[in-house]
Amino acid sequence: MTDKNFDTPPMPQDVTDHFWEYFSRLKEKNNQFARAVTSVDFVDGTVTVVIDPQSAGATREALYGVLPGSWGQGAATPVSFWNEKEIWLRTVVHFVRVEDVNGTHLGSGSTEQFAASNHVDNIRG
Asked: What is the mean pLDDT of the chain?
């Protein structure tokens, strides 16, 4: 994604590029979940992340071991923080869904919910 004027709404390509950039950075660190991502789609406010554990050389159970919480929350990380770019993307991304290559739902949630959990007012130290 090129530098954007955050005063204009994000385009679908901006959304998918941002997610792919995030997963690519994690793949470089050999992150199993990111290695399993086979597609990222954005339609009607929902980002759908499709994973195939076999493409990462893993089982579903092994992936669960590296991402024991919500699969949806893990996949929503690229729009869960309070920097200018992620706030901008959340103007159009409202929901993140994770499914496997067979279409089985693995986890989901609203970006509002995920971002709220990362807001400075909600972090306990």
From this structure: 87
